[in-house]
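User: I need a structural model of Mannose-6-phosphate isomerase from Aliterella atlantica CENA595 for a docking pre-check later this week. Nothing fancy, just the predicted structure tokens so I can convert them on my end. Input:
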Amino acid sequence: MNWYPIKLTAYTNAYVFGGRLIQERLGKKNLPDGIVAETWEISDYEDKTGTVTNGNFAGRTLHDLVETYPDELVGENWRGPHFPMLQKFISASSRLPIHLHPDDETAQRLYRKPNGKTEAWHILWTAPNASILVGIKPGLKSEQLFDAFKKQDYDAVMPRFPIKAGDTVYVPSGIIHSFGPDTLIFEVEQTSDLSSDVMPIDMQGNSRSQDEWEKCINTTLDQLRPHYQPRPFAGLSRQEGDNRYLVACAGPYFALERWTLNAPHDEPEHPWRCLTLSNVGKPVQIEYQGGSEMLATGESCIIPATLSKVRIVPTQEQSGAASLIACYVPDLERDVVIPLKESGYSDEEIRALGEVDIL
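Assistant: Understood. Predicted structure tokens for Mannose-6-phosphate isomerase:
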């Protein structure tokens, strides 16, 4: 079997908070007209699984490949119901609903789904003075939260933090959150679409009755977890020659890095895990044994676990460095902790990446 970088179709959502930021600020092409709130770049979620657009696997779904070739595609000895990460570009032209995602236990118990959703946001662009609402202020009771949500006084109970391009926010399941307006992000998460919110309207902008609204608030409060306070984080960087590698966040479900490439990057072999790449800069050429693949601005691909000797080469079409977002399911000690300690980072700095246990 000849493996290669795999590109997929992108599913789009036209939620009420969306706009045209993915096209206008990122430069992603071939989007539908009108509101585009999300493009699901790498997805194996139920009927929204991507279809391969290139190479020998063209026309097959990502879910088909995951089921047929789990070791070669995802990683040696990996087994699961679906590809383990879902990745999106999100255009928050308006503020997202105040919402949360259930944890794994709740997803299995209440929704009969294999997992909940921990996620992270990597900020690509914001208007000046942009901020996020995330988590719950300490010491508040459910009654106080319910009253604030009914009054739509979110700042009374949720911390607000300023954000800027380059920040990353790690958001575990059960943590209530929102961002926008005028914010463009890349999001990586567990493969799930479960959520609950506290809003008087739904994601399509339809009004809810008072009973429906209060039921939504109570469902959200039942799933709320106050154990973690997310904060924007600038990441931990290392320089290798002309290239800069930023570890932006990490936890048991995914790690996210931002690569700034002025020179070719040689990706080491890692048969225990695959790698996804999303291009948020100028085009790059991905060279591998047997061929090459261009990754255009706004495009994403999967580098299969079995694919070795991959080189990523910035093109000369435009000035400036190439910029890529790389995601993977880490062996935290091997892939994150040891390399960062070797670069001189402390245990405290590494823990700030998200949910990283250090022995």
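Before docking, keep this in mind: The chain has eight helices and 21 strands.
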